[in-house]
Queue: 2 jobs
Job 1
Amino acid sequence: LKGGDVIRANKSVVCNAPVWALPKLLPDEYTTTSFWGSIENVWNTKQLKEKMSKTPQTESFMHVHMGIDGTGLEGLDIHYTVINEWECGIDAPGNMIVISIPTVLDPSLAPPG
């Protein structure tokens, strides 16, 4: 985290992969174990994977990832959203742009040069 703190997942993992890619990344079944090695649960993900693969894609936005020299841009947020025309709704094709600037959190992502 920004202050140097670390949060470790005990029961879950956050993934930034698109929902349509997750079924390919997950096993059909997995087992969670306790600290001492005893079996806690056996999880079947087939139904979840099927549900994720049926999630409809939207044509409403473009997501731009930018790495820029942030000199003089202190206080910039990591994400910005632009809606071209509110009257059309955010689900109108090409009406929404999400801009991510990860260098706000980690300037080394855009090294000099």
Note: The radius of gyration is 20 Å.
Job 2
Amino acid sequence: MLPCIRGEKNSDEERQRRISKTIDRSLAGDARDFRGTHRLLLLGSGESGKSTIVKQMKILHVNGFNEKESREKVPDIRWNIVRAIIAITDAMSTLSTPIALADAERTQASLDYIREFRRQHFTNQDTVDATFAFPSEFFDHTALLWQDAGVRACYERSHEYQLIDSAKYFLDKVSEVRRADYLPSQQDILRCRVRTPQIYETRFAVDKVNFHMFDVGGQRGERRKWIQCFNDITAVMFVAACSDYNLLLEEDTTQNRLCESIDLFKSVWTNRWLKTVSVILFLNKKDILEEKILSQKSKLEEFFPKFAEYRVNEREKMQNGYSHAASAASAGGRHSAAAAAANTTTAPAMTTRLSTAAKMSTTSTTTTATTRTSTSSMAPTSHRKLRSSSGSRLSSSSSGIEQHQHPEVLRAKLFIRDEFLSIRDDFVSDDHFCYPHFTCAIDTENIRRVFEDCKDTIVRMNLRRFDFI
């Protein structure tokens, strides 16, 4: 009898050991997966382009958008057209210098229709009715209004009111978007603006390296949710629209958008829960910044007076093909552009408001100097050391600054970049690094190159986090 009992006991103990080993192996595997997965948190103010970068990751690494997913974007795109034409037509009567229809006899009925449409169907800008059946008259009147020179003139002053970046893109495509068989292109999906009301997670792999990317809303009312994502983050990807230097926040029309991004970057950089988490800084919408700088309609120094005294250092000039001839040509160009700008009418009240907001906001985050010089070569030793070892130096190849571009565009880019990096340099830490890149989120090839540069940096961050290097 006793041998039987002993045998049963040994068998039970063996079974328990097998179960324990299975659990241990499972836990060890989970731990390996956890250490091998890089969790990226996308932060930044509203309209900076965070969700567009997530879409690019899906296009580049998750087989893109299938037909069903593309068709699901149609209502959002049509409501983008609604937002655009309503914002423009509303602004025509509310700008400091109102704008009238150029051909009222032909388009007044269309303007009246859009205003009535707004009253009936557009009570909440954040709500999209995916089942709404757009009447053909809406597209007819929108297309007719968009051809009016007065409406176009109001669009040209879009920095004086709230208008989505893709307004012109979609208004130019009304005849295509209205079709019953319309299937959005990849570019349509990237340009479609939808507010992010909650936390979205996107999982993908690049060269067998796993990434989890968390996208959260950037408007002030959404930021209280950010802390939910701070735990176990490999890196923060902070997205700022570098072209927003002449725009005001939608939720606070006394605050300059770029100043808001700088202030927000400071709060992220100094957050006690993120003091050992490095930041990849995406200075987004570089294409729009270039257009604005070259057009000279809204000069950067009007909103950030320190830019007038800012100079590009010799190292940056060499890295970016900035020649003396180009610099001289730029100076001549500035004089001619200034003369041309004198004939351009810009609403003085709006410019003063934006400039004042910029001055007030940057006073607390940046240091005033009579002459400022680009500072990438003056980074603290710890920053230079890691950048060199990770291959993420502040060079034109890795930071998204093209070679041989217009000197004034280069100067503007470096000035804006240094406004952010001055915060990094004011709060130096051996475990806290910043890697800036200029991006164009709607350009798939640009994002592919930038993320490829970032990938090795992120992997090294994760290895350092678990004390492997």
Note: The first helix runs from residue 2 to 36.
